[in-house]
Amino acid sequence: MIKNLLPKHKRKNPPSLTETIPFGAVTTNHMLICDYLPRKNGWQTPEIIPYKSFSMSPSAVVFHYGQTIFEGLKAYRSQSNDKDLFLFRPDQNAKRMAQSATRMGMIPFPEDLFVNCIKELVKVEKDWILPSPGALYIRPSMIPLDKGVSYRASEAYRFFIILSPSKNYFAKEVGVSVYIERTLARAAVGGSGEAKCGGNYASALLPMKIAKEKGAEQVLWLDALEHKYVEEAGAMNVMFIYNNKIVTPALSGSILHGITRASIIQIAKDLGYEVEEKRIEIDKIIADIKTGKLTEMFACGTAAVISAINCLYDKEEKIPINNEKIGEVTLTLKNHLLNIQSGIAADPYGWRLPIL
């Protein structure tokens, strides 16, 4: 059971599709919270409440030891019938969040309850789901509640969900540029790279700043051991196109198991593309771009879906890809995925979960 504690009064209205909405800047009127309290038999009844701030002690564990995790997914409004609303593969987000919790020494949130909580909150805020190509971004998170600066895992936790109307993650559609980070690393095998935890993203902020100073918009991450093999692009998975062959870094233990990544691999195989998952040397990628063997490159994730990478920055060198244009394979895969997500195309995989 989920308690609905909504106020009687009406609050702010959803934005229109024509309004400029920076990604994540606007939140809906309500949120969902559910606390894990070991002295009260564990997970409490989830509650939908007005969006509000949390009041926490300065000694709260959340501020000191990085024991925080989150997820990201979207709710969509069908293009063929705007009353048809659905989520995209929420069961996979539930599974990944439970895995992240385990890795970070937290109490996993029940997977079935995760999906039900999202459905009930989105039902309340359904008017905020922008028409395609917009959506409603969903951010489930979990934080520790214990107080005290002694180093330990918390015993109590708070799971919560906030929502944000979403348009394009990147302002332009021509693709993004990425800077090859050859010194700093995102994560190492045996570390927290497979978990969607706050620390992984915090450690990426300095390299992101460096990338922007070099003229790029994102960072291309290499492995932590040899700084030789490609891992991710920004906070996204990355794929390389060799005509009709798609190559992507194998999940090595330091790469996030992207749900968009897995979806693209399935779609690509069904469209007849050859897909190979393996270790990929950055110097070979650069050489293959320059000789024309590598024809396209893109990053993929929930927020951006698929974004073409139009050039690499390596130290002081700029290396254009496909004349800095979106390639045919990238566009084909993006359209197929978006058409499934927005209800234009049939869903042969059962990825769409109806909300109403």
Can you tag this structure with a few keywords?
aminotransferase; nine-stranded mixed β-sheet; branched-chain amino acid biosynthesis; D-amino Acid Aminotransferase, Chain A, domain 2; 7 helices; 2 domains; BCAT-like_C; D-amino Acid Aminotransferase, Chain A, domain 1; 356 residues; BCAT-like_N; EC 2.6.1.42; ten-stranded mixed β-sheet; alpha+beta
Task: Give an account of the 3D structure.
- Keywords: Amino-acid biosynthesis, Aminotransferase, Branched-chain amino acid biosynthesis, Pyridoxal phosphate, Transferase.
- Its EC number is 2.6.1.42.
- Acts on leucine, isoleucine and valine.
- This is branched-chain-amino-acid transaminase.
- This protein is α+β, with helices and mostly antiparallel strands and 356 residues long.
- It contains seven helices and 19 strands.
- It folds into two domains: 2-166, D-amino Acid Aminotransferase, Chain A, domain 1; 176-342, D-amino Acid Aminotransferase, subunit A, domain 2 (D-amino Acid Aminotransferase, Chain A, domain 2).
Mean pLDDT: 93
Order of helices and strands: EEEEEEEHHEEEHHEEEEHEHEEEHE
CATH architecture of the largest domain: Alpha-Beta Barrel
Helix content bin: 10-25%
By DSSP (H or I, 4+ residues per run), the number of helices equals 7
How many E strands? 19
**What is the domain tally?**
2
Dominant shape: globular
* Cα-to-Cα separation, first versus last residue: 17 Å
Q: For this structure, what is the CATH homologous superfamily of the largest domain?
A: D-amino Acid Aminotransferase, subunit A, domain 2
Strand content: 25-35%
> What structural class do helix, strand and pairing data support?
alpha+beta
Would you identify the regions where 5 or more consecutive residues have pLDDT less than 50? none
Give the C-level CATH assignment of the largest domain.
Answer: Alpha Beta
